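A favour, since you know our structure tokens better than I do. It will help me judge whether the discrete encoding reads sensibly. The space below this message is yours for that.
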Amino acid sequence: MSTFIPMFTSPEGEFEVMRAYQTIMNKWPVPFKEVIIFTSFGETHITVSGPENAAPVVLLHALLAGSVSWYRNVEALSQVYRVYAVDVVGEGNKSHPVRPITSLDDFLHWFTEVIDGLGIDTLYLAGNSYGGFTAAYYAMKLPERILKVVLIGPAATISPMRPFYTHMFIPKAMYAFFPKLPGLKRVMRNSVNWMHKGLPVDPFWEPFFYSSMVYGGLINQVLPRMYSKEEFAQIKAKVLLILGEQEAIYNNLQSAVRSARELIPNVKVEMIPAAHHVTAVANPEKVNQILLQFFAE
């Protein structure tokens, strides 16, 4: 039997992240069950809500943001849909990896094992940031199974994102390799504050995200990139792009919108006021309204 790879900087760090995680789960607004799907990359933890026979919606979180980042959205979605909030394997969350994901096709293999394990045939898919980057790939490669896909501030995907690397990814990666460097908590606090762009913080999710940035591990080895027009042409699903008006990861937000319209056939674009990179946390009411309308169309 394969051994799980430790995904936290220390047992104490794991305790801090899981305590913040559980604080949010104590606020989960609807009944839920937790399931584990066994995949060739390890155990994948998923929180499931909503009517058993309803159409499935699968949610993929941003890097280190955890499936708990959807807690402000699950109540609205689960009134109509069976909602699966996935903890992406290979990050510091409730999933337990046995080996890293090293290619997009590895990610596709993992995701297919997850939805097969859940007994899902066709689905609606929404992904934020890195989850949006991979969701686009799944929609390209599983055109008969993914009926609609929502990309929420997708990492790279449609546009270069130097600011993200400068302010978040490179500082986190540096401390992942050299965890004893001084100043970790201060640097991660600066990264989290940069992402929020002065907008109000969520009192439950923000402490989790900060702890995850400080103590959470990353073992997957796939850097996000832009996709080509030819790659996007493989998508048969309807595509919705959601961007917060205070989104800061791209070199230029308006250029990213123009690029998306050029790259993705018939893409629908929604700009969310008073919202940063983790848009569904920042302005859940507006995002919920748009998601429900898009899935119902």
About this structure: The longest helix spans residues 162-177. The two ends are 46 Å apart (CA to CA). The beta strands are 32-39, 42-49, 56-60, 82-86, 96-97, 123-128, 146-152, 238-244, 268-272.
